Amino acid sequence: MNRILIVDDEKSMRELLSILLKKEGYDVATADNGDSALQAVQQEIYDLVITDIRMPKIDGIELLKAVKELSPETVVIVITAFASTETAVDAMKLGAYDYITKPFKNEEIRLVVQKALEKRLLRKENILLRREIESRAGFDNFIGKSEAMQQIFSLIRQVADTRSTILINGESGTGKELVARAIHYSGSRKNSPFVTVNCGALPETLLESELFGYMKGAFTGAVANKQGLFEAANGGTLFLDEISTTTPALQIKLLRVLQTKEIKRVGGTADIKVDVRIIAASNRDLLQEVNKGTFREDLYYRLNVIPILVPTLRGRKEDIPLLIDHFLGKLGSEGQKKRMSEEAKDRLSGYGWPGNVRELENAVERLYTLVPGEVILPEHLPATILPGSPFLEIVPSEIPNEGIDLESILQTVEKNLLKKALDKTGGVKTEAARLLGLTFRSFRHRLQKFDQSS
Q: In principle, which of 53, 185, 308, 450 could form an S-S bond with 80, CB 3.0–4.6 Å?
C-alpha cells in the first residue's frame, strides 16, 4: 500500500484529498503546515507528498526542497490557487513531478497521483530488473551431474516455494550464493528482489545501517533518510552471506526480525513490517560457534530450519570436466573457442582444489588467457596442480563438515608417489621400489592396481 502525505493549511482541502485518496486504497497521512510535514518526513518514508504552495513559515517550495534532500525517492506534487508560470517552472526544476492548480476535478487528482506512483514503481522495477539480469548471469555457473549435486537440485525444488528460513553451509568457493539464487528464482518470489549482503565485508555499524536503513541525522554522514536492504528485499529474498561474522549485538536484532517480521531504522522509532525470506550462509560450522559462545543459540535454531550442505569440488570430481567446458565456453567468443584435452581434464580432476569451484574457474581463465593455440594440453598445466602436486595440495588442512573421500585421497597420493619414483629412476622399477621402501612384488602389485604395466 502506497503511503501518501497531504500537506495543506486548509482543513477542508486536507479532508477532501484524504477521503478521496483513501477510497483509492492509499495509506494517507496529513499535516497542516510545513513544520509538521517536515517532522513527518524525517520520521517516515513516504511514496508521495502532495503539498500546497502557499503556507506560513515553511511554504511548498521549501518543503519540496527538504523532501528531496531527506528522501530522494519520494515523489512530490504541488498544488496552489495562485498559478503562475514562474512558480510552476521553479517547482519542476526542483524535482516536483507535477503542478496542479485549484480548483481541480477529483478525477484529475486521481489520475495525476496514479501516474506519479506508476512512474516511481517503474523506476524501482527497472532497478530490480537490472539486479535480476545480473543475478541470472551468475546462476548459469550452477552445473553438476554428480549424485551430490543431484541431491542439492532436488532439495532446491522442494524448498523453493516454502517460506522457511534456510541455512547453507559449505567451504568457501563451493557456490553457496548460487544455491541461494537457485532457490529464489525457482520459487514464487522469483519476480521480487534477490538482495545479497556479505556480513563479513562490513563493520558492525555500517552493516546495521545497510540492513535496516537509517533516518537523517542518525549518525555523522546520514544526510538523508535511506531505505535498508530488508525494505529493498520486501516481497523477495535477503541472502546473508558469512552470517557467522556478525556480532552478538547485531545477532539480537536479526533474531527480532525473524520473530516479529518487523524492522526499525537506525535513528527511527517506527516499526516497519517486512515480508522477506531469509537465506543465510556460512563457511564455518555454526553449531561449533554456538558451543564456543560466539553465535547465539536461539538465532542458530531460527536460521537452521532447513539446512543445506554444499559439497566440495573434491567431493564431486565427476563434475570437474563439465565445469571446465562450461568455463571455457563462457570465455570464448564465436570463432575463437579453445578446448582442453581429455588428459589435461583428467589431471585437473585429480587435484584437491582447496579453493573449490572458484579456484577451478580462475585456473581455467588463466589457462585460456596464457596458453597459445586452440588446445590446452597437460604440459600447459601449472606444476602446482599436476599429479605430482605437493601432498598438502591434495589433503585438506582440516576435515570439512560434509566429510572427505579418504580412499580417493589415499589413492591419489599413492599414484602420484609411484609415478614420481618411476620418473626419478628413469622407469627402473626395482630402484623405484627401493626409493619407496617397498619390495619389488609390492611395488608391481600397486602399479597393477592403477592399470599400469608391470
A: 53
Separation of alpha carbons 243 and 230, rounded Å: 15
Q: What are the structural domains of the chain?
A: 3-122 (3.40.50.2300), 147-311 (3.40.50.300), 312-399 (1.10.8.60), 405-454 (1.10.10.60)
| 250: its cell numbers | 547485531
Check if the beta carbon of residue 135 is closer than 8 Å to that of residue 185.
Answer: yes
Task: State the chain's mean pLDDT as an integer.
Answer: 84
Percent with pLDDT over 90 in the chain: 37
* 49 pLDDT more than 90: yes
Cα 276 to the chain's mean position, in Å?
A: 13
SS3 readout for the chain: CCEEEEECCCHHHHHHHHHHHHHCCCEEEEECCHHHHHHHHHHCCCCEEEEECCCCCCCHHHHHHHHHHHCCCCEEEEEECCCCHHHHHHHHHCCCCEEEECCCCHHHHHHHHHHHHHHHHHHHHHHHHHHHHHHHHHHCCCCCCCHHHHHHHHHHHHHCCCCCCEEEECCCCCCHHHHHHHHHHHCCCCCCCEEEEEHHHCCHHHHHHHHHCECCCCCCCCCCCECCHHHHCCCCEEEEECHHHCCHHHHHHHHHHHHHCEECCECCCCCEECCCEEEEEECCCHHHHHHHCCCCHHHHHHHCCEEEECCCHHHCHHHHHHHHHHHHHHHCCCCCCCEECHHHHHHHHCCCCCCHHHHHHHHHHHHHHHCCCCEECHHHCCHHHCCCCCHHHHCCCCCCCCCCCHHHHHHHHHHHHHHHHHHHCCCCHHHHHHHCCCCHHHHHHHHHHCCCCC
pLDDT, tens digit, 9 for 90 and up, residues 210-249: 999 998 888 888 878 888 999 989 889 999 999 999 999 9
Q: Judge whether residue 138 has pLDDT over 50.
A: no
Distance in angstroms (rounded) separating the CA atoms of residues 414 and 420? 10
Backbone angles phi, psi at 227, to 5 degrees: -75, 140
Residue 228 has phi, psi (to 5 degrees) of: -90, 175
Type of residue numbered 196: T
Residues 6+ apart with CB under 8 A from 112: 77, 98, 100
Task: In whole angstroms, give the CA distance from residue 221 to residue 292.
Answer: 36
